[in-house]
Amino acid sequence: MAYDPRWAVEFEAERALVEAALEPWLVGAVEHIGSTSVPGLAAKPIIDMLAPVRGLSEARQAIEVLSGLGYGHGVHRPDEAHYFTKPPTDHWWERTHHLHLTTPTSLLWRRRIAFRDALRRRPDYRVRYEHLKRELAAAHGADIAAYARRKDDFVNEVLGVQHTSDAPADRHEGRPAERSHPTGSNRPPVSPDR
User: Fold this and answer.
1) How many C-beta atoms surround the C-beta of residue 17 within 10 A?
2) Considering only 92-101, 120-129, 139-148, which range has the smallest mean pLDDT?
């Protein structure tokens, strides 16, 4: 579907709910990732989010809290993150939100933030990525696993790495926004690029 500016608004509304619920475990601001976070990029209308937590074992306590917000706990990279979908359904096309709780030093965090930032900066990457996604969607239909695997070469190229297990170079990007605020509030500042 063509880019919809309402996705940014939907993210901000959901971010406020999620950050309030996850306050005990968060070490930074919840980030909007995935194609809906890149202005001008066509996407499946699912809001993808990363929440930076201190540790995965401690953050397991958030499963019940997120259930109260309509999220179902799923399995995706369990060594790196706790994964949730809203609503909790096995059919990806019925989902409105994906949420990963992970540490900001994880490979998942570093790759997703770096890839998002590269697509935001480079129109040529956006054009190529959109073309690739349309081509793969036509070729793989509802087989989301095959679709995702085929995107890896492009993602690795953009990140300047050889393999999906490689982290992008640290350019001081991809770090979570600070949670402290000059007024003493724990609300993270809103950055203009979200």
Assistant:
1) 13
2) 139-148
